[in-house]
Amino acid sequence: MSDTLAYFQQLNPDKKIDKLLEKGAKIGIYGSSFDPVTNVHLWTASTVAHRKKLDAIIFLPSSHKRTDKKLQTSDEHRVNMVSLAIKDNPKFLLDTYELDVLPGYHYTYYTMEHFKKLLPHADLFFIMGADLLQDIGEGKWKKADELISQNQFIIMAREGIDMLKAISHSPLLRNYDDGRFQLLDKGLAMEISSTYIRQEFARGGEPRYLMPDLCYFYSKKHGLYK
C-alpha cells in the first residue's frame, strides 16, 4: 500500500479508498469548521457528489489557527463528529491536514497544492458556497489570484447571492470564467447553520434533527456548546 493510501486508510479505517489514486478520479475538497457538522453539510455533499459524478468528497475540518474562524470546540471533538457523521457513506472521507499546518499555510491555495501533490492523478474540485465565491471576488481571501487561476470549483447556491453577477462583477473571477466554476443553483440554498445549532444548545433548545443522531448524542455526552 502506498503512503497516501495508508494515510487515508488510517483516518478512514473501514472504507475502500483505492479509487483515490486512479487516473481521472473526480474528488471534491469540502472544507468547513464543522462546528458542529449538520445534516445540511451531509445532504449538500451528497447532492454535489451525485450531480457532479464525484468519486469521493474529502471533509476537511478547518484549522483553529485561521483568524476568520471562531471555533467553540476542540479539534478532537470536531474530527470525532465528522467521523461519526460520514461513517456510513463510502464516498465521504475525512482528512485532518489543515489542523496541523503551520500558521500562514492554512490558506485554501496551499491546501489545494497539498492535495495536488497527494493525489497527482485526480481531478480535484474545491467545494464552497456562493458567499465564499463572492468574498474571493471582492479580494477578501489571501492568495486569491493563485487559487482561482490554478484550480477548479464547485459553487453551491446561497440565499440572496446571484452567482453569475458575483463572477461578472469581479475582474479576477470573470477573467477565469472558462468553465472552472461549476455552479449548482437548484435546490442547494437550504440554511441550517452550525451557528444556529450552537445557539440552540446554549439556550437549552432541541436541535436533534438538524444534525446526525450520532453527532447529537456525542455533543450531549461531552457537554459541547453549553
SSE inventory with pairings:
Layout: H1 3-11, E1 26-32, H2 39-51, E2 56-61, H3 75-86, E3 92-94, H4 97-100, H5 108-118, E4 123-129, H6 130-137, H7 144-149, E5 153-156, H8 163-168, H9 171-174, E6 181-184, H10 194-202, H11 213-222
Helix pairs in contact: 3-11
Shape: globular
Low-pLDDT segments: none
Helix content bin: 40-55%
Give the N-to-C terminal Cα separation: 43 Å
What is the percentage of strand-forming residues? 5-15%
Radius of gyration: 17 Å
Content-based structural category: alpha/beta
- Largest sheet features: 6 strands, parallel
- Average of pLDDT: 92
The tally of strands reads 6
The order of strands across the largest sheet is 3-2-1-4-5-6
SSE pattern, N- to C-terminal: HEHEHEHHEHHEHHEHH
Quickly count the helices: 11
Write up this protein.
The N and C termini lie far apart (43 Å). The model has no long low-confidence stretch (mean pLDDT 92). The chain is 41% helix and 14% strand. With 226 residues, the protein is α/β, with parallel strands linked by helices. The radius of gyration is 17 Å and the shape is globular. The chain has a six-stranded parallel sheet, sandwiched between helices. It contains eleven helices and six strands.
